[in-house]
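User: Hi! I'm a student and our assignment asks us to look at how structure tokens line up with a sequence. Could you show me two examples?

Assistant: Happy to help. In each example below, the sequence comes first and the structure tokens follow. Example one:
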Amino acid sequence: MSALRLTAAPVFASRTRHRLSLLLKVAAGLVLGCGLLACGGDAGPGPAPGMAPVPPEPTAKVLAPPVLSFTDTGLSVSDGVTRIGAWKVSTLEAWEYSFDMGNTWTRGQGDFFDVQGDGAKSIWVRARDDMGNTSEIVMVRCVLDTMPPAPVQAVVTLQDQSRLVRIGGLEAQGRWEYSLDDQRSWLPGTGDRLALLGNALPVLWVRQVDLAGNLSPAERVNLLDASGATWHEASGNPLQPSLLSLQQSRTVVLHGSVVRGDADYIRWDIPAGHKLQSMRLVHYASADPVAFFALQRAPVFDAGFDVSRMLAYGHMGPPDLLRNVLMDIAQAQLTAGPMTLWFQQTGPQATDYAIELVFQPLE
């Protein structure tokens, strides 16, 4: 019996130590797993039993503000005055706009909205999405003016051989235009009067353009007066040209009808402190598309065919309409002093023409 006890004691101790070692390993594993969970580590696939997953915090979406554009019909492209109330909206998101500084908002449709009612406008526009996110507000201003101005007051007076049309009734910052072809095209006027000399154009039309670009009804001015002194056939003598009276006009129209053998010679004097800004063909009616002009800086046209004595010369016809033939001439040659124009058609077809002169004060 004693021998058996001596043998059993070591065996029992060995088994006890083995079980204790296993328990310590299991406990260590549980501690390590809990530590990994507490530190956010990967403690195995999926959440621990009995623990619900925590959803991430939602992140607000940043929306780009829309880009706005409109048609500025005013005196400049940046004065904010227009007669057209449509605004274009460029954005990749939905958008909305407000006319009362954000107190109320209207959902936008398509890519534009209309401003209505004349007067100054304050406009707010922003992008938005279905989650309620909005962009920064784009704030713009404009002045809407859709009312046409009153017709101009055109008063015609006669002086020497010229006809003077005085322009009145313009709104503040309004301007005026004139037409020589029954309103098919319009030319800008300068100053407050228009002087005309010639015998080709029976009717002149004038109208007002206000700050927003609205047009007044056109006013008709009768120029045809075959028995009067202002229905003037220009001189055919280069040494005795017709004299144009500027009458303080900054815009002047010379008009005539020429054919082979019938040249027009017209003289004018550039006032002191002024320059001849431009000389343009503004009307041409003929089956022959080529006429001829020359300009001499002298009180008569005695250059003959010597082009070295001419300030400018060349063919003139439909391709030259609205071209300033003085563009490449030095300003010093276009200041105070006399000038004489020669205009002629060398073919057998009658040619009606009109040449516009614009004078400007020296800067």
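Example two works the same way, sequence first and then tokens:
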Amino acid sequence: MIKDLEHIEDLFSDILGVKPNIKDNIEGDEEMVFDLIIRHLENSKYDEDKVFEYGKVDLTHITDPLWAVLEAQFQLLYGEGGAETIFWYLFDRVDEDGVINPLVGKDGKKYTLKESKDLWNFLKYNYL
């Protein structure tokens, strides 16, 4: 197995002219990328809301189609329920007073998702 991996590294090195970085922790990397994406989306949603709150500029005619594309991508990756959970997390998890609303799971239990890693773990357990 190690020889095969070394052979693949050499092959890519010859083709690309650089030593490749082969990752062996795909699941960990996937979680890190998911966390980064969700944090960026949270920040974008926050910025969009603040632009409207302070400047009275409604950006929904620009952002709604982008959110729709993201929702479709999440549906492909995590299924309908997973996408709904992600969008609940982004849009409905925190109320106007800053209180975190619990998510009611398929099992009827309430889950408090404080950060994107909690969301990842919920999705992983329920939809992946």
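Here is something you could point out in your write-up. The chain has a mean pLDDT of 87.
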